[in-house]
Specification:
Blueprint (H helix, E strand, L loop, with lengths): L1 H7 L8 E3 L5 E3 L17 E3 L1 H7 L2 E6 L9 H14 L8 E5 L3 H13 L2 E7 L4 H9 L3 E5 L10 H15 L5 E3 L7 H17 L6 E4 L5 H13 L5 E6 L5 H6 L34 E4 L2 H15 L5 H17 L4 E6 L7 H4 L2 H6 L17
Helix pairs in contact: 3-4, 3-7, 7-8, 10-11
This protein binds 4'-deoxy-4'-aminopyridoxal-5'-phosphate.
The site of 4'-deoxy-4'-aminopyridoxal-5'-phosphate has 18 residues, from helix 8.
C-alpha cells in the first residue's frame, strides 16, 4: 500500500556542509536542477594519485567528461546560446547555426533541444560518419561540406554564418544566430564565470599552476583570466600545445605567427591563429609546452591503467603538461588541468594496434601497457 511504500523509502537528509580533502567547506545543498542545462559544470576535481606521488605535487584533473554532452564544450555551448538570448537574437523556435565537427556540436545539440531551438551544423566532409550520425540523432540538421581553409569563403564556418544570415532574413520573428565559437567571447566567459571559480574554490585557493591545451582558446583564456585576477597574478598559467599548432611558437617567440605545418593525433585542439577568445589574454600566459603525440598516447594508457580514467587524447596531453609543470615547479605545488572528454568517441583509434602502427606510435606504448591494445 501507499503507506508502506512511503515508510520504506526514506532518504537521509543531506548534510548542509562537508569538509573536502583540502579542508574546505563544501556546500552539499542537494536539489533539482530546472533543466538539463543545470547539469552542466560543477564537475569534480580528481587527484591523479600516481602522478601526484611521483612529482610530490597535487596533480588534479577537472572531470569535464562528466558534463551531459560528455565534454568541456557543454559550458561554451550553454554560454553562447544564453548570450544570443540575452542579446535578443534568439526567441523560442529560433535556430542556432554553428561550424563544428565535434564536441561543441554535441553540447549545442543538448542545449538547443533543452531550450527549444533548432540546430544546424556545418562540418568538413572529412569527418567520420559516426560524428554526423550522432549529431543527427541528437536532433541537429547536418551539412558536411568540402574541407577548405579558413581563408576560403566556402569554409564550413563561413557557410554556417551565411546560413544563419539567410534564416534571419526569412524568419526574423524567431531569430537565427551563428554562435561562432572561435571568436565569440561568450565562450571564454563560460570559463571566467564557471570553470575558473570552480577550480579556485575546489582547491581552496591553494592552486599554484594551471595548464591546458586550446582549440578555440576559450578554456585556457577564461580560466587564466579568472585565476590571475583572483590570485593577484600568483597562479602560473601554461599553454599545452600539440604538434602542428602555431601557438607554442607564438608564445615562445613573443608574438610571431608562423605557418601551420604538420599535425597531431589529438582532436579538438591545436590552432593556426590567435582567435578572439585568446586575443588580449595571451599576454597573461606564463609559458607554453609542446607535447609530442608519443607522450600523449602513452598517457592515455597510463591514466587508464593507473587511475581508471578513460580519457581522450586532448585530456591526456593536458595531463602530460600538468606532470611536466609539476616537475618544473617542484614538490608541494598544486597543479590543475582539464580532462576535456573521455575516450569513448576515439576508442577505435586510440586502442587499435593497426591505427597506432599507421601513426608510428606503437612503440610509444610501454610493454606493461600493451594489454590495453585490444582493437
Ligand atoms: N579538448 C577537446 C576534446 C575539445 O573538443 C576541445 C574543443 N575543440 C578542446 C579540448 C579545447 O577547448 P577550447 O575550445 O575551449 O580551447
Amino acid at each position: 500500500t501507499q503507506a508502506v511504500r512511503q515508510a520504506t523509502v526514506s532518504y537521509a537528509a543531506p548534510a548542509a556542509e562537508q569538509v573536502n580533502q583540502y579542508g574546505i567547506k563544501v556546500s552539499q545543498a542537494q536539489g533539482t536542477v530546472d533543466a538539463l542545462t543545470g547539469a552542466i559544470g560543477n564537475t569534480p576535481l580528481i587527484k591523479l594519485q600516481r602522478l601526484s606521488r611521483e612529482t610530490g605535487c597535487n596533480v588534479l584533473g577537472k572531470a569535464e567528461f562528466q558534463n551531459p554532452g560528455g565534454s568541456v564544450k557543454d559550458r561554451a555551448a550553454l554560454f553562447v546560446v544564453k548570450d544570443a538570448e540575452e542579446r535578443g537574437l534568439l526567441k523560442p523556435g529560433g535556430t542556432v547555426v554553428e561550424g563544428t565537427a565535434g564536441n561543441t556540436g554535441i553540447g549545442l545539440a543538448h542545449v538547443c533541444r533543452s531550450r527549444g531551438y533548432r540546430l544546424v551544423i556545418y562540418m568538413p566532409n572529412t569527418q567520420s560518419q559516426g560524428k554526423v550520425d550522432l549529431l543527427r540523432l541528437l536532433g541537429a540538421e547536418v551539412y558536411p561540406v568540402p574541407a577548405v581553409a579558413w581563408e576560403n569563403p566556402e569554409n564550413y564556418n563561413w557557410q554556417a554564418k551565411r546560413h544563419a544570415d539567410r534564416l534571419l532574413k526569412e524568419d526574423p520573428e524567431h531569430g537565427a544566430v551563428w554562435t561562432n565559437q572561435f571568436d565569440n567571447v561568450a565562450n571564454r566567459r563560460a570559463h571566467v564565470e564557471t570553470t575558473g571559480p570552480e577550480i579556485w574554490s575546489q582547491t581552496g585557493g591553494t592552486i599554484d599552476a594551471f595548464t591546458c591545451a586550446t582549440g578555440t582558446g576559450g578554456t585556457l583564456a577564461g580560466v587564466t583570466r579568472y585565476l590571475k585576477d583572483v590570485s593577484n597574478g600568483k597562479v602560473k598559467c601554461f599553454l599545452a600545445d600539440p604538434p602542428g599548432s602555431v601557438l607554442h611558437s607564438y608564445i615562445q617567440s613573443g608574438g610571431k605567427l608562423k605557418e601551420r605545418e604538420g599535425g597531431s593525433i589529438t582532436e579538438g585542439i591545436g590552432q593556426g591563429r590567435v582567435t578572439d577568445n585568446l586575443k588580449n589574454e595571451v599576454g597573461e600566459i606564463d609559458g607554453s609546452l609542446n607535447i609530442s603525440d608519443e607522450k600523449t598516447i602513452e598517457m592515455v594508457y597510463r591514466c587508464l591503467d593507473e587511475e581508471g580514467l578513460y580519457l581522450g587524447a586532448s585530456s591526456s596531453l593536458n595531463v602530460v603538461a600538468a606532470k611536466e609543470v609539476a616537475e618544473k615547479l617542484g614538490p608541494g605545488n598544486t597543479v590543475v588541468t582539464m580532462l576535456c572528454d573521455g575516450a569513448y568517441r576515439y576508442a577505435d583509434r586510440l586502442f587499435s594496434g593497426k591505427w597506432l602502427e599507421s601513426k608510428n606510435l606503437r612503440a610509444a606504448i610501454p610493454k606493461h601497457l600493451e594489454r590495453y591494445i585490444v582493437l
